[in-house]
Design a protein that fits this description.
The complex is a heterodimer of chains A (308) and B (250). In chain A, 31% of the residues lie in helices and 27% in strands. Chain A has 308 residues and is an alpha/beta fold. Chain A folds into two domains: 224 residues, Rossmann fold, CATH 3.40.50; 62 residues, Alpha-Beta Plaits. Chain B has 250 residues and is an all-alpha fold. Classes of the chains: A alpha/beta (308), B mainly alpha (250). At the A-B interface, α2 and α3 of A face α1 and α4 of B.
Chain lengths: 308, 250
């Protein structure tokens, strides 16, 4: 699948800065998005994620920085840019009385040359709701419609800002698959999220924004390896003396609580601890490993928790 | 152009789906017509001091074209600002903005809706007036139509300006209503201008509605419009770029 992410760049931003009055929302953000990838922007509330993507779409004017989106500058070419991108925004809505099909038809008519809106309606499972007014839809249905509107103009690049907010677990999975389908058809996706599982399941690469800066950038595996690289091995043992475990390669700490033992370390720590135990005549039946998760990495990066 | 047409069509459809707004737009001028018509009849009046009232024509002859202006003012100052501000408050404008709709296109769509709704409302008004009262027909239909379009342009400019800068639907509605009331009583469609005090008349001639009434009465009654056409056009020329500049998407 690596070939899918082409070498071409869909978006490149360097030293983006944006203030609201005296409040600095985005301090200094730089990253690049490759054509055809799903790029995640992860960060705590108020970290500048939404402001960043709004500047990239030309909805807000960046105070400083170089921005290149599909070869256009959103500050001077916003009109042309918006024809080629799709957007699902936070805190946006449709008129109460607009019907589902009318919304799809209307936004599709703004960008001639896009896909048939009826196909989009069916693909996003909105056909059954076609004559329902926006205000009568559930929160999840409204959200699904708003995401569908982001792609109804057949964009090359689509921005999704907390797209699964309000969706139930099964709808989230459906939407995730649709976003993967989009990428597989060649659309580049930039998504803002605060859900770890969503980032982990969907994103090819992730930028963690914290305090208006990019605090980390990489694939999920890279972020975990760098920021949550320690694994935690637990087991029960009747051995009285387990001091030998401390000397196993890669082990950093050993905690003992009665018969329960927690070993933390890096590298192939599970295999090495297991080998050492067997060599000392014990084979615990409940030997388990917990590897660092994206959430551990996120908490380590944003300083809201200590690295494990 | 295509976007403006699509947006106008959509906004019109949505307008028609809101029964209270439709009822309000259609019924209000008719109610005012029936009440004031019942009070004043259609006799040319005379002041105690001897001068003519109603610019020298019958009361109903005076009021019918004035009410055409009133329809335009009602739609543009009550519906348009509240609608725009409401759309901003709810994030609809944000959604439009992200789809490369421009402030000009939003303003033009509001104008389109205002023209259609006002036209329907004027027809209802004229049909009612014809059934209930005797009044003279228009002197020049082309000038009446031109006056209607010019008035709608001027007042939808003001409506969009209000909707562009007022933050919430409630504040837009409150201010729109306030302006509407002042204009209803002092703008020439309420008490005849001749009975107003000098101070009131000074305010009167400063209201945009006064000029819309003059323009309509020009086409309908062949009365002197003074500079009212130019003032309405000046409102458009100055107000429209201002409204688009001041336009806020969120």
């Amino acid at each position: 699948m690596a070939t899918r992410v082409g070498p071409r760049v869909a978006l490149d931003v360097r030293h983006l800065r944006k203030c609201y009055g005296s409040v600095v929302a985005v301090e200094d953000v730089s990253f690049g998005v490759r054509q055809g990838e799903i790029f995640g922007i992860l960060g705590p509330n108020g970290s500048g994620k939404t402001t960043t993507v709004e500047c990239l779409q030309g909805l807000r004017r960046a105070d400083a920085g170089e921005i290149d989106v599909l070869g256009l500058d959103p500050r001077t070419e916003a009109g042309r840019l918006r024809q080629r991108i799709g957007a699902q925004l936070q805190e946006s809505a449709l008129p109460d009385r607009i019907k589902v099909w009318e919304a799809l038809h209307f936004f599709s008519s703004l960008a001639p040359g896009g896909p048939d809106w009826r196909d989009v309606m069916e693909r996003w499972d909105l056909g059954g709701l076609r004559n329902r007014a926006f205000s009568t839809l559930s929160g999840g249905q409204q959200q699904r419609l708003l995401v569908a509107l982001a792609v109804v103009n057949g964009p090359e690049l689509v921005f999704l800002d907390e797209m699964t907010t309000g969706l139930d677990p099964s709808s989230r999975r459906v939407v995730w698959q649709l976003v993967r389908d989009l990428r597989d058809q060649g659309t580049t996706v930039v998504m803002v999220t605060h859900f770890m599982d969503e980032a982990e399941h969907l994103c090819d690469r992730i930028a963690v924004i914290h305090g208006g800066r990019v605090a980390a950038l990489g694939t999920t595996a890279e972020l975990i390896a760098e920021f949550a690289g320690r694994s935690e091995v637990t087991f029960s043992t009747d051995l009285a003396d387990i001091d030998f475990v401390r000397h196993v390669d890669g082990v950093a700490t050993v905690e003992q609580d009665g018969t329960r033992v927690i070993v933390r370390g890096t590298g192939p720590v599970l295999a090495r601890v297991a080998a050492a135990l067997v060599a000392h005549g014990d084979a615990p039946i409940d030997l388990e490993i917990r590897r660092g998760s994206l959430e551990d990495a996120f908490l380590a990066i944003t300083g809201d928790g200590s690295a494990t | 152009m295509r976007t403006t047409a699509e947006l106008t069509r959509l906004e019109l459809k949505l307008f028609i789906r809101d029964p209270m707004t439709v009822l309000f737009s259609l019924a209000l001028p008719v109610i005012v017509l029936l009440i004031l018509g019942g009070v004043f009849g259609n006799e040319p009046g005379e002041l105690d001091t001897g001068g003519p009232v109603y610019r020298g024509v019958g009361a109903m002859d005076y009021y019918v074209p004035a009410y055409v202006a009133l329809v335009v003012v009602s739609v543009c100052l009550i519906s348009v600002p509240a609608h725009l501000a409401g759309n901003r408050e709810r994030g609809v404008l944000r959604r439009y903005h992200a789809s490369s709709i421009t402030a000009w296109q939003v303003a033009m769509a509001e104008l389109g809706v205002a023209i259609v709704i006002s036209a329907v409302s004027v027809v209802v008004l004229l049909v009612t007036a014809t059934i209930v009262y005797d009044f003279v027909g228009p002197w020049s239909i082309p000038i009446v139509l031109l006056g209607f379009v010019t008035s709608t342009l001027a007042f939808s400019t003001l409506g969009v300006l209000l909707g562009a800068v007022l933050p919430t639907a409630r504040s837009a509605q409150a201010l729109g209503m306030l302006l509407w009331f002042v204009m209803l009583f002092l703008g020439g469609a309420g008490p005849p201008p001749e009975v107003l005090t000098d101070a009131m008349r000074a305010i009167s001639t400063a209201t945009p509605m006064w000029h819309a009434v003059r323009v309509m009465q020009h086409g309908w009654l062949e009365l002197d419009p003074d500079g009212s056409w130019l003032i309405l056009l000046a409102i458009v020329a100055i107000g429209a770029p201002l409204a688009v500049r001041a336009f806020r998407w969120e």
